[in-house]
Amino acid sequence: MLEDLNQQIDCLHDIFSLINSDSEKYMLALEIFENELNNEIKADSEQRFQRLLRDEIHPFLQGKLEVKSSSEVKAKIKDYFALVFNQTDLFYSNRKSLDDSITLVNRKLADVLDEAQIKAQQIFPHYYERFKSDGVEHNLYTGQNIAPDLHYHSKIVHKLRYWQLKTVCNMEIEFRNFKKRSPD
Q1: Residue 184, pLDDT above cutoff 70
Q2: What CA–CA distance (Å, rounded) separates 184 from 179?
Q3: Strand partners, 149
Q4: CA atoms of 83 and 110, how far apart (whole Å)
Q5: Alpha-carbon torsion 20, 26, 28, 31, what sign?
Q6: Which residue of 48, 166, 169, 178 shows the fewest CB atoms closer than 10 Å?
Q7: For residues 116 and 136, is the Cβ–Cβ distance under 8 A?
Q8: What is the 3-state secondary structure (H, E, C) of 101-122?
Q9: Residue 125: CB partners within 8 Å, gap ≥ 6?
Q10: Helices 45-52 and 24-39 meet at what angle, rounded to 10?
Q11: How far is 76 from 23, CA to CA, in rounded Å?
Q12: How far apart are CA 60 and CA 23, in angstroms?
């Protein structure tokens, strides 16, 4: 996130240094945000930066595309807008890479969990629920009521807990292997 924001600020600095006139207030605002991001980031820094982009900077740049501006300025502005993610008005390449990596990890861990769960059903039939939050989570519901024809005892609970511990350890191993294979 920080890399994307700094890259966006640098790109805007380049554009505004070419425009020169009418852009001093934007240059100052960008310097303030750059200082805040790299030294004393606040909880609402990104939202305030988005607001500045949406309400002031982007309309200003769009206006520069419509009036007589040098071809170099227009090209830089077009290149800038090509990098902007429309839904957020922010650069998104580094964050997208992170989001994609998290999605891949979650899929892999969900597969490991679903595969291992088949073995857990052999210990004792149970209700299994896997759900995604910011990671992969699961619940097991077991007991005599789920399989009334089978004898349920405390040893089954211990076996299921052991299965759960082994599965979580295997998931951790898969995650570490994924980290080794993926670029920083």
Answers
A1: no
A2: 8
A3: none
A4: 32
A5: negative
A6: 169
A7: no
A8: HHHHHHHHHHHHHHHHHHHHHH
A9: 142, 146, 147, 150
A10: 160
A11: 15
A12: 9
Q: What does the pLDDT look like over 55-99, one tens digit per residue?
A: 999 999 998 888 877 888 899 999 999 999 988 889 988 888 888
Two tokens, residue 39: 């030294």
pLDDT mean over 141-145:
88
- pLDDT digit string, tens, across residues 6-15: 999 999 999 9
Helical spans, DSSP H, in 40-92: 45-52, 58-66, 71-83
Q: How far apart are CA 175 and CA 170, in angstroms?
A: 9
Q: How confident is the model at residue 173 (pLDDT cuts 50, 70, 90)?
A: very high
Helix (H) or strand (E) holding 6: helix 2-19
Question: How does residue 134 score in pLDDT terms, banded at 50, 70 and 90?
Answer: confident
> CB-based contacts of 8: which residues, under 8 Å, 6+ apart?
83, 84, 90, 91
Which tokens hold the place of 66?
């419509």
Residue type, 55: D
For residue 147, give both structure tokens: 């399989």
